[in-house]
Amino acid sequence: MTELYHHRVLSPWGDILLLSDGTALTRLELPGSRFPSPRNQIGEAKSALPVFREAQQELAAYFAGKLRAFMVPFDLRGTPFQTKVWLALSKVQYGKTVTYKI
After folding, report:
1. Are strands 14-20 and 25-29 parallel, antiparallel or unpaired?
2. Which of 23, 57, 62, 91 has CB atoms 3.0–4.6 Å from 67's, for a disulfide?
3. 18: which strand partners?
4. How many CB atoms lie within 10 A of CB 19?
5. Looking at residue 89, what is its pLDDT?
6. How far apart are CA 63 and CA 86, in angstroms?
7. pLDDT for the residue numbered 77
8. Using an 8 Å Cβ cutoff, are 54 and 74 in contact?
9. pTM of the model
10. Which neighbouring-strand residues pair with 15?
11. HSE of 68, CA atoms in CB hemisphere, 13 A
């Protein structure tokens, strides 16, 4: 299993936990996440990783109302269903509300 590194970012919502394999974000946990990452899979924090610096800058710009699309690299890791949902969500434009069909 690939070692993951973590970094916490302070946001208006509280601490956001970023996880990375060293190259891309592999997970972003919002405060109060119902499904926290298994701590035994997380390596030492490496806040100097470029991906963490980029994510922190983009999150700050987003919360300041200056960013609408994130460019930080990410690597989706989940079940086939989760991956399908995340890809669908990534196509929703900023400020839009969408629903799924029943």
Report:
1. antiparallel
2. 62
3. 7, 28
4. 19
5. 87
6. 21
7. 83
8. no
9. 0.79
10. 10
11. 6
Residues 6+ apart with CB under 8 A from 3: 21, 41, 43
What would the 3-class secondary structure string for the chain be? CCCEEEEEEEECCEEEEEEECCCCEEEEECCCCCCCCCHHHECCCCCCCHHHHHHHHHHHHHHCCCCCCCCCCECCCCCHHHHHHHHHHHCCCCCCCCCCCC
Return per-residue pLDDT of the chain as tens, 102 residues. Answer: 567 888 889 999 999 999 898 899 998 888 888 776 665 555 666 667 899 999 999 999 999 999 998 999 999 888 999 989 988 888 888 888 888 775
The tokens for 30 are 């919002």
Rounded CA gap, 71 and 57, in Å?
11
Place of tokens 């956001």: 16
Cβ atoms of residues 78 and 86 within 8 Å? yes
